[in-house]
Design brief:
Chain A: This is ABC transporter permease subunit. The structure holds two protein chains of two kinds. In chain A, about 85% of the residues lie in helices and about 0% in strands. Chain A is an all-alpha fold. Chain A is flat, with a radius of gyration of 21 Å. The chains are: A mainly alpha, B mainly alpha.
């Protein structure tokens, strides 16, 4: 392998890495945060909350991420482009950027999967916790926030870690809607130089490193959360 | 889709012009709509998913056997397999295998003199790449299921004087299968959705067909919504089927409990 090719590949991969990290950060933060209220809605005794949450989770988990991505990018983009007031507005360049659609689709997808994880964790808590919190006179939002949520978080952590690795892998799909993240960058180099193996292996290395980093960060959080329980 | 087909059959014998399906006309059967193409795409999606799933199960059994094997080499190889596949995006692996399997398999077959020339078609390449990814996940499901079979079962088999092979096939394997079933059901749902990734290399399964249809008719939203509903129906239906199988297989334990 000549150094010129390696330099080109490295340069493109680093460029792509920035986009991947940005996409991952946005979807990771908003997806994980959005999952909590959806999970509470999903187990709510009120059907006006429970049913929409159930359908949201079912649809997002029952269809391929790629379909969701296309639905937002091509489908929603199509509707927006047919709305003249938007088409000719100052906002149009932003509404046309593929990045926004990818961020939206992956955030909602992550929210649905994580909500299901949270639901399992919430339902796994002993009933006595709720009763004890109520008998202490805590208000509903107080016992949800102070008693239920921290304990459920501890139960949900291992699965959330896996889900965030899946999110990282799903960001590679953004390359199919013209975003040059790591996968897109590797594809670009592949088509420019016709070196299939080197470019794809380069991208694979980046993803392995990112997966290790995510898993490591979650294991740190896990250790921190489990500290009071160690003897 | 079925209704569109019916409409056309009803409309044609009378010699009357084809019925106007309104906003559903994109799904018409025949030259005017994409109904037949989408149906063919859906069948391809199902058959690719089915073949990849089977290949994944075979690789998974081999992988799980390797993980619980006494050979250090086999264990390390299986560890690399599952770790790499779980850390690298499916899309990347599928591109890599799809592009290389076509040329590599051809070289092997021509090189061995099995055939003068051999063209690996898209279907085989798609199944190979998806099946390879599935195999890693199946390995984990089977490995978990094997370790969930109680230790006493193994000891009891040894006490009865069963050979290693008999212990595996008569005692461990059937119990392992039952414990693996929920995981295997999930994997089917995963491969069904993952098969959509094959559309990226231009293989005309369900999603690719919808993209073609959307591009040609300038109505992406309609066609992507249609395939989203199709995937959803397939997922929900298969989840139900697995539920029934699980209940059927677990019926003895319930009767005892």
């Amino acid at each position: 392998m000549d150094s010129g090719f390696i330099a080109l590949l490295a340069e493109k991969l680093v460029e792509g890495l920035k986009t991947t990290l940005l996409l991952m950060a946005i979807c990771g933060v908003f997806g994980n945060l959005l999952a909590v209220p959806i999970a509470f809605a999903r187990i709510s005794p009120r059907s006006s909350l429970r049913k929409p949450a159930y359908i949201f989770i079912l649809v997002l988990r029952g269809t391929p991420v790629l379909v969701q991505l296309y639905l937002f990018y091509y489908g929603l983009g199509e509707i927006l482009s047919r709305t003249p007031s938007l088409r000719h507005s100052m906002l149009w360049p932003y509404l046309r950027s593929a990045f926004g659609y990818a961020a939206l689709a992956l955030t909602l997808n992550t929210a649905a999967y994580c909500a299901e994880i949270w639901r399992g964790a919430l339902e796994g808590l002993p009933k006595g916790q709720v009763e004890a919190a109520k008998s202490l006179g805590l208000k509903p939002w107080q016992f949800r926030l102070l008693v239920i949520l921290p304990q459920a978080f501890r139960n949900a952590l291992p699965a959330l870690s896996g889900q965030n690795v899946l999110l990282l892998k799903a960001t590679s799909l953004a390359s199919t809607i013209t975003i040059f993240e790591v996968m897109g960058a590797a594809n670009l180099v592949r088509s420019q130089t016709f070196r299939v193996y080197e470019s794809l292996f380069g991208a694979a290395l980046v993803y392995v490193a990112l997966t290790v980093a995510i898993t490591f960060m979650f294991s740190l959080v896990e250790r921190w959360v489990n500290k009071p329980y160690r003897h | 889709m079925a209704t569109c087909r019916l409409d056309r059959h009803v409309a044609l014998p009378n010699g009357s012009p084809q019925m106007d399906l309104g906003w559903l006309s994109g799904l018409a059967y025949g030259d005017t709509g994409w109904g037949d193409e989408l149906l063919r795409g859906a069948l391809l999606t199902l058959s690719i998913s089915g073949c990849s799933y089977l290949l994944g199960l075979i690789l998974g059994l081999i992988g799980a056997a390797a993980k619980s094997s006494r050979s250090r080499f086999a264990r390390t190889l299986a560890w690399f397999y599952t770790t790499i596949v779980r850390a690298v995006p499916e899309l990347l692996l599928i591109l890599l295998i799809y592009y290389t399997s076509t040329s590599a398999l051809r070289q092997v077959i021509v090189g061995l003199g099995i055939a003068q020339d051999f063209e690996v078609n898209g279907f085989v390449a798609a199944c190979l790449s998806l099946g390879f990814v599935q195999g890693a996940y199946s390995t984990e499901v089977f490995r978990g299921a094997i370790s969930a079979v109680a230790r006493g079962q193994r000891e009891a088999a040894a006490a009865l004087g069963l050979s290693r092979r008999h212990t595996w096939w008569l005692v461990i394997f059937p119990q392992m299968l039952q414990r693996a079933l929920p995981g295997l059901g999930n994997l089917w749902l995963v491969v069904l959705k993952e098969s959509a990734l094959i559309s990226v290399v231009g293989f005309s399964e369900l999603l690719f067909t919808a993209k073609m249809a959307g591009g040609a008719s300038h109505n992406y939203l309609f066609f992507f919504l249609t395939v989203a509903i199709a995937y959803l129906v397939l997922s929900v239906a298969s989840a139900r089927i697995f539920e029934v199988i699980e209940r059927h297989i677990g019926r003895h334990e319930r009767a005892q409990g």
